[in-house]
């Protein structure tokens, strides 16, 4: 990284890039830095907040109070970017969630899924712990420098090439110019990339949006005695087929013997505001009272925290007609998804692995072309389609209505989910698609197609597939 007036470090032989500047030091920015690390002499991450020494909240990340799940597809990609990351997280207290052995999942329209072990593993922990572990590993494995307490204010360059960014020190107000061969915007939903490019005379196509009005409330609980370290993740999806507002719920076992629990609903649902309302909502509003029953023996550790930031938004930076070289956008800054589907973290991983793969295949060439941005947008395409097709089935959603083909695809998916409740081979493929470990086109696999045909003739599994231990906990509030 070159700050104007600083000594220029020698270029690594054959790397093609001397420096990379990453704007935003959240999860997407950290992984983008890891992705570029092997192909640049220096990588600098600019972040508004000061990072805490321990896994603690920070002001610029209010969403960390809500559940975050690193799905199996995200785990696989994260291990490629940061070898050892899952072991590090587990050592710090994160839970390895076997899909579906350790997951109780009630799908929208599909009932409860079978719990046969698929061999896939997700990671369940607080966002604070996740980011802390990733920062530690990046510092150990890559030549990354962090500039905290700073904010990017504009890009340096013109309509042909971006050569860096102007960065303001939030403590002193001083503005420095950071030059780089590649600038990566990972500043999240609040990204100003479109406005920055507009100032340089670069027209960005308007953002696509789909908003179901989903809102959710989260509380932290101390797990009941005996359930601190060996308890399944619970996921109950909102079912929009009735045309009325629908509720969802999720329980994540996290570090320190705690549960992070969220309940929510689509536009028109009233959210709980205190512990008593939260417990009642969890029992009465979702399609099954299981999660509410499980909370009976758990102690509340926090107030009720509400989020209404759930709209899907996609900027098509890959479709800029005359795009400048040296600048790409990743993570939520490019494609922001409804958090209730649990794909945000894994989509950031997919985008970062796309950056790594493109740089590995073409060196510095994509920096001078549109190839790198296209690869990022392709990586987010499946998660975008999954989230928006689900959200567009709710009657109060703002966004383009489902086409006849999309409605047929949703019906096919529901039939496949019914089959997954009875057939482990179908469940393995369907869950891989849902958790981003396989491409969406895998839903056309002959095993799934045959299952979907049979699934339309099978009843929905209405009872959660609990173990004897879990059933006892549900009825007594204690683990035997």
From TrEMBL:
Pfam family, one: FAD_binding_3
Gene3D superfamilies, per database record: FAD/NAD(P)-binding domain
Residues covered by the FAD-binding domain: 19-361
GO molecular function: FAD binding
Protein name, per record: FAD-binding protein
Provenance organism: Nocardia stercoris
């Amino acid at each position: 990284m070159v700050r104007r007036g600083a000594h220029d470090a020698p270029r690594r032989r054959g790397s093609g890039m001397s420096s990379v500047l990453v704007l935003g030091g959240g999860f997407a920015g950290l992984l983008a830095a890891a992705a570029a690390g092997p192909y640049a002499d220096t990588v600098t991450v600019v972040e508004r907040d000061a990072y805490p020494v321990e896994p603690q909240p920070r002001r610029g990340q209010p969403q960390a109070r809500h559940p975050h799940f690193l799905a199996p597809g995200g785990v696989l990609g994260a291990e490629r970017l940061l070898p050892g990351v899952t072991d590090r997280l587990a050592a710090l207290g994160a839970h390895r969630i076997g899909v579906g052995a350790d997951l109780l999942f009630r799908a929208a329209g599909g009932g409860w899924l079978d719990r046969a072990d698929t061999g896939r593993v997700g990671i369940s922990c607080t966002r604070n712990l996740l980011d802390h572990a990733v920062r530690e590993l990046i510092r150990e494995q890559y030549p990354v420098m962090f500039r905290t307490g700073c904010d990017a204010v504009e890009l340096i360059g013109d309509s042909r090439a971006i050569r860096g960014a102007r960065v303001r020190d939030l403590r002193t107000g001083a503005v420095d110019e950071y030059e780089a061969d590649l600038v990566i915007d990972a500043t999240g939903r609040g990204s100003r990339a479109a406005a920055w490019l507009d100032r340089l005379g670069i027209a960005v196509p308007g953002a696509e949006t789909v908003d179901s009005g989903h809102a959710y409330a989260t509380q932290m609980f101390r797990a009941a005695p005996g359930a601190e370290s060996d308890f399944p993740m619970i996921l109950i999806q909102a079912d929009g087929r009735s045309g009325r507002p629908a509720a969802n719920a999720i329980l994540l076992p996290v570090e320190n013997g705690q549960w992070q629990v969220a309940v929510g609903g689509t536009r028109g649902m009233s959210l709980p505001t205190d512990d008593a309302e939260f417990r009642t909502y969890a029992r009465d509003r979702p399609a099954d009272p299981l999660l509410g029953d499980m909370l009976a023996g758990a102690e509340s550790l926090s107030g009720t925290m509400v989020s209404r930031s759930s709209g899907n938004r996609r900027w098509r930076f890959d479709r800029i007609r005359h795009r400048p070289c040296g600048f790409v956008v990743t993570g939520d800054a490019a494609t922001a998804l409804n958090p209730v589907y649990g794909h945000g973290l894994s989509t950031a991983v997919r985008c970062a692995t796309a950056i790594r793969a493109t740089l590995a295949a073409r060196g510095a060439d994509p920096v001078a072309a549109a190839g790198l941005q296209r690869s990022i947008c392709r990586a987010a395409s499946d998660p975008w389609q999954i989230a928006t097709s689900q959200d567009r089935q709710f009657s109060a959603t703002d966004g383009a209505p489902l086409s006849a083909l999309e409605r047929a695809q949703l019906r096919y998916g529901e039939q496949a989910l019914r089959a997954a409740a009875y057939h482990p081979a179908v469940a393995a493929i369907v869950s891989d698609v849902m958790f981003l470990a396989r491409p969406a086109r895998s839903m056309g696999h002959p095993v799934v197609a045959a299952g979907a045909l049979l699934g339309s003739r099978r009843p929905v599994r209405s009872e959660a597939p609990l173990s004897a231990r879990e059933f006892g906990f549900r009825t007594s509030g204690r683990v035997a």
